[in-house]
């Protein structure tokens, strides 16, 4: 079994230089995430949750400190290398689903596969993935706008999982869904975690955070517990 | 590739604005290609008209010069001519090429009993020189002084056939000649424009018009590369002290004419090019709109692993599709437009489907595609370099 943590933050500082003065969004953040964990990151608005998510997702780089994803130090990576890391190791699930309206559901799910393989791909894996997130076959050729919010989020989950990432990053995954649909999505996430998927979820909803096994609370750019 | 597919679909869902952008390219291509085709067709038309005389050096008396006029002449410019002595000098200077002395005048003539008198140009040529200068469509070259050759247009307009008789001069006072042959159409010419003229023998001309001197000398140069040398030799021989003859290298003159046509074609094509630039700005505009509308989509793509160059390619493909489709439509319309313009202005389309005309369609289409690509580069670059975090936050 691979004992290496899937994510390590060491004294990570993120400062945004602004004309009115520097703003420290994260101040010496340290934590690690082991494989198979299901972690919630909670905190009030402006606490640094989004900055933390951006750094975890390799969308941004820290001002100082080190970040390791599956043992790979990301701080000195080029934009191209960070993009490849996002494509191959990280799955994103957003509050507003963020599917591509020009592509149908199967194409949305195969999109990251095509980015990885740089050629046309067999959609069978995407179909299997969509079935595993309990989406009906009859919806596969529909466009995202033709299905419900819950179904869109299931498509987004399938898209995030299609390249077998090491980590799933969730940004308020139920924030745009009614409570029943949201609960269904979280049940699905719990099931994925039981099967071994590492999940890190940013939320401010305690009921949603209850699905996770560990909570990291953040306030004023510092981890408070 | 998925980015190609996305580019196609984006054009399809914004069909109206994409079509308008393409329309600009279509107009630009049509403007460039049609103007080019028209210019080239004009050049070819003139070229065809002049091609029979592109191998000559024409020697004429220098207007304002001191050359001796014909006996009894007034000495003014209109009385200038080339003497037999001058001709012999020209002949020696241009040897071994053939020097043909030409006499020319206009006179009344009547074709058959009861017909109206007409006025036409009459050339006087030595019968031995005629085959070197003119080709016959039908009949035979005149050997005796009673024969006459007629131009093809002259024959057609006046219903003249081989064997017809032409009474020259007022009430035929110069004599009546029998048509022995009809000359092939030659078009506009620097040496002798025979299409609407008649050709009589030199002896008959001398006798009828009391002329011993010549109006011009045509030197037919066998090797075209010798044209400048022949021209120089004649000038050196004849204009040693004073300029007494003007010597024209017809090929040089044709080159000057074609160069002028080429410049006109380039100028009108450049005007077409301006419309293409305007079309390019239109493409730039809709591509910028496309980027602005899709900032969030770009953010999502980048966040799930699309490289900058891949995002860039998506917008480049979009510009390329607009350019290629617009150029293809424009190229087709140019062909139709060129056909219509050639039919109306030149009365012929035979110069349309030739490589030198078709190349203008290729130029127009290539310019359309290149302009579209250039105008797509900046929006594509801008899209590719968006900060993924800012793009994801964009509403």
Distance between the termini of chain A: 29 Å
Work out the count of structural domains of chain B: 2
Average pLDDT of chain B: 85
Structural class of chain A: alpha/beta
Question: Taking Cα atoms only, what radius of gyration of chain A do you get, to the nearest Å?
Answer: 17 Å
Indicate the topology.
The complex is a heterodimer of chains A (225) and B (395).
Chain A: E1 7-16, E2 23-33, E3 38-42, H1 49-56, E4 64-69, E5 72-73, H2 79-89, E6 90-93, H3 105-117, H4 124-132, H5 149-161, E7 167-171, H6 179-194, E8 198-202, H7 206-209, E9 214-219, E10 222-223
Parallel strand pairs in A: 3-8, 3-9, 6-7, 7-8
Antiparallel strand pairs in A: 1-2, 1-4, 4-5, 9-10
Helix pairs in contact in A: 3-4, 3-5, 4-5, 5-6
Chain B: H1 2-13, H2 15-50, E1 56-61, H3 84-94, E2 98-110, E3 117-125, H4 130-133, E4 136-139, E5 147-150, H5 152-157, E6 165-168, E7 175-183, E8 197-201, H6 202-209, E9 216-220, H7 227-238, E10 245-249, H8 250-293, H9 295-303, H10 308-346, H11 355-384, H12 388-393
Helix pairs in contact in B: 1-2, 1-10, 2-8, 2-10, 2-11, 3-7, 8-11, 10-11
Structure description:
The complex is a heterodimer of chains A (225) and B (395). Chain A is α/β, with parallel strands linked by helices and 225 residues long. Chain A has one domain: 3-Layer(aba) Sandwich (Rossmann fold). In chain A, 33% of the residues lie in helices and 25% in strands. Chain A is globular. Chain A starts with 6 loop residues before the first strand and ends with a strand. In chain A, 45% of the residues are buried. The model of chain A has no long low-confidence stretch (mean pLDDT 91). Chain B has 395 residues and is an alpha+beta fold. Chain B has 2 domains: 2-50 and 255-393, no CATH class; 56-220, no CATH class. In chain B, 55% of the residues lie in helices and 16% in strands. Chain B has helices at residues 2-13, 15-50, 84-94, 130-133, 152-157, 202-209, 227-238, 250-293, 295-303, 308-346, 355-384, 388-393, and strands at 56-61, 98-110, 117-125, 136-139, 147-150, 165-168, 175-183, 197-201, 216-220, 245-249. In chain B, strand 6 (165-168) and strand 7 form a beta hairpin. In chain B, helix 2 (15-50) runs antiparallel to helix 8 (250-293), helix 3 packs antiparallel against helix 7 and helix 8 packs parallel to helix 11. The longest helix of chain B has 44 residues, at 250-293. The interface between A and B is medium-sized, with 30 and 22 residues.
């Amino acid at each position: 079994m691979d004992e290496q943590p899937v994510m390590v933050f060491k004294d990570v500082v993120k400062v945004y230089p602004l004309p009115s003065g520097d703003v420290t969004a994260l101040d010496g953040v340290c934590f690690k995430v082991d494989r198979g964990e299901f972690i919630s990151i909670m905190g009030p608005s402006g606490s640094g949750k989004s900055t933390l998510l951006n750094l975890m997702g390799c969308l941004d780089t820290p001002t100082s400190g080190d970040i390791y994803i599956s043992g790979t130090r990301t701080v000195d990576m080029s934009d191209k290398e960070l993009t490849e890391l996002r494509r191959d190791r990280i799955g994103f699930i957003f509050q507003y689903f963020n599917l591509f309206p020009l592509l149908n559901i199967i194409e949305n799910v195969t999109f990251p596969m095509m980015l990885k393989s740089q050629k046309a791909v067999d959609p069978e894996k995407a179909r299997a993935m969509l079935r595993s997130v309990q989406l009906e076959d009859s919806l596969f050729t529909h466009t995202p706008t033709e299905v419900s919010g819950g179904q869109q989020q299931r498509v987004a989950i399938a898209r995030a999982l299609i390249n077998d990432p090491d980590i799933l990053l969730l940004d308020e995954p139920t924030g745009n869904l009614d409570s029943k649909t949201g609960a269904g999505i979280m049940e699905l996430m719990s099931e994925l975690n039981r099967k071994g998927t590492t999940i890190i979820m940013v939320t401010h909803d305690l009921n949603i955070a209850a699905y996770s096994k560990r909570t990291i609370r953040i306030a004023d750019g510092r981890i408070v517990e | 590739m998925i980015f190609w597919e996305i580019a196609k679909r984006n054009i399809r869902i914004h069909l109206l604005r994409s079509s308008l952008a393409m329309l600009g390219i279509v107009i630009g291509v049509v403007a460039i290609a049609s103007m080019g085709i028209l210019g080239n067709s004009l050049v070819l038309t003139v070229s065809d008209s002049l091609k029979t005389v592109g191998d000559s050096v024409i020697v004429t008396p220098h207007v304002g010069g001191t050359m001796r006029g014909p006996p009894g002449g007034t000495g003014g410019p209109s009385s200038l001519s080339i003497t037999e002595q001058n001709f012999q000098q020209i002949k020696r200077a241009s040897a071994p090429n053939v020097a043909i002395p030409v006499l020319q005048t206009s006179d009344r003539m009547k074709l058959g009993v009861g017909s109206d008198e007409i006025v036409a140009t009459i050339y006087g040529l030595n019968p031995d020189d005629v085959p070197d200068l003119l080709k016959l469509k039908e009949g035979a070259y005149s050997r005796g002084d009673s024969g006459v050759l007629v131009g093809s247009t002259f024959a057609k307009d006046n219903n003249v056939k081989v064997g017809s008789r032409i009474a020259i001069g007022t009430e035929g006072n110069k004599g009546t000649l029998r048509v022995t042959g009809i000359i092939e159409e030659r078009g506009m010419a620097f040496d002798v424009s025979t299409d609407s003229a008649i050709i009589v023998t030199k002896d008959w001309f001398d006798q009828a018009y009391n002329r011993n001197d010549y109006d011009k000398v045509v030197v037919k140069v066998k090797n075209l590369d010798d044209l400048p040398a022949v021209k120089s030799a004649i000038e050196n021989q004849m204009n040693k002290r004073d300029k007494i003859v003007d010597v024209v290298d017809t090929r040089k003159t044709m080159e000057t004419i074609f160069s002028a046509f080429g410049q006109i074609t380039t100028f009108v094509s450049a005007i077409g090019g301006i419309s293409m630039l305007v079309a390019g700005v239109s493409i730039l505009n809709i591509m910028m709109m496309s980027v602005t509308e899709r900032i969030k989509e770009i953010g999502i793509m980048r966040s799930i692993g699309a490289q900058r160059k891949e995002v860039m390619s998506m917008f480049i493909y979009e510009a390329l599709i607009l350019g290629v489709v617009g150029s293809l439509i424009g190229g087709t319309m140019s062909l139709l437009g060129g056909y219509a313009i050639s039919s109306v202005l030149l009365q012929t389309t035979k110069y349309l489907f030739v490589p030198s005309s078709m190349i203008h369609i290729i130029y127009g289409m290539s310019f359309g595609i290149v302009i579209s690509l250039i105008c797509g580069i900046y929006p594509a670059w801008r899209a590719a370099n968006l900060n993924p975090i800012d793009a994801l936050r964009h509403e």
